[in-house]
């Protein structure tokens, strides 16, 4: 624990280093108040493999419902071990792992406790509705309809897309032992594979947010909070170990300064809002698909096609799938869903995460210079 930023009572001034260690930044009263208030909602989770006598993994989890429902981020833990939750008031209780989802690196747990303080989820405001470029003028665009499936009305009934916190938003990270770090959101929509403490293989994740936070391995699951104390995301990994820097000013007030924050990545609140209820209800996340494999467009192809947003090129189509029945073709470029433009950098998996199997969807497609539309009903993705 020598590399941790220790806060005594969370009432003392906090110090964190600016990106690259160029200058020290003093935490404001808001940061201290947010960390102090949220500390009661952060729980230390210890997992012990029954084959060994010592703890084999340590995580943070947050209370998402006052009756003892917890959410944890990071590589899913193996079943069969012993889970113990240590609350902020010092109580240690057995915990039960209800369900995990590898793609979003989220796990749902339960403890037998009541009247806990739940962290509210941050909800991003809806931006001006983006539309597919040229769609309004292309009223005569070709319509591809599956013969066996009548077109279902899309648009108003379509689920809201994932929304990410704005780049530059300042967040506060607080862990179950009172360690605190601050930093700005620097990126979003970063799907990839991450190593996590205790994992034997990398975790394949959905879209993430990145922040300049001085985080270490055992911080996994710690919440990112905004100035109102709302949950912005849950930490799943960090790019590099951040060593403490000797600093006499920090030492005088009982702190250990974490130098040179690196990018730490977290599951955003918009993903948590979708996945948590599904894990509770189904003990898994039923995912919707259309039966295609796609490749995200790069900047060169987007410029050649004069597209301002993102898009996904169809590389293969499963015979008999909804995409095949709707008339999709190889090398079609899917540029919009239900009239909403696909943003550059967004994976197709992220775009479909709000949809459930059986939902209707209308695709905006760019095909050999023409705009076409296809309506289909999504199937469950295996």
Describe the protein's topology:
Blueprint (H helix, E strand, L loop, with lengths): L14 E3 L6 E3 L2 H10 L3 E7 L8 E9 L3 E5 L8 E5 L5 E10 L4 E6 L30 E3 L25 E5 L5 E9 L3 E3 L8 E3 L3 E5 L9 E3 L5 E8 L5 E2 L2 H5 L4 E2 L3 E7 H14 L5 E2 L2 E5 L2 H6 L7 E6 L4 H4 L7 E5 L2 E2 L6 H5 L7 E8 L2 E8 L1 E2 L2
Parallel strand pairs: 9-26
Antiparallel strand pairs: 1-2, 3-4, 3-6, 4-5, 5-8, 6-7, 7-8, 10-11, 10-15, 11-14, 12-13, 14-19, 15-16, 16-19, 17-18, 20-27, 21-22, 22-23, 23-24, 23-25, 25-26
Describe the model.
The chain is mainly beta and 382 residues long. The chain folds into two domains: 15-117 and 165-282, Beta Barrel (Thrombin, subunit H); 286-380, Pdz3 Domain. The protein has helices at 29-38, 248-252, 269-282, 299-304, 322-325, 348-352, and strands at residues 15-17, 24-26, 42-48, 57-65, 69-73, 82-86, 92-101, 106-111, 142-144, 170-174, 180-188, 192-194, 203-205, 209-213, 223-225, 231-238, 244-245, 257-258, 262-268, 288-289, 292-296, 312-317, 333-337, 340-341, 360-367, 370-377, 379-380. The strands form seven sheets. Strands 9, 21, 22, 23, 24, 25 and 26 form a seven-stranded mixed beta sheet that branches. Strands 3-4-5-8-7-6 form a six-stranded antiparallel barrel. A six-stranded antiparallel β-barrel has the order 10-11-14-19-16-15. The two termini are 41 Å apart.
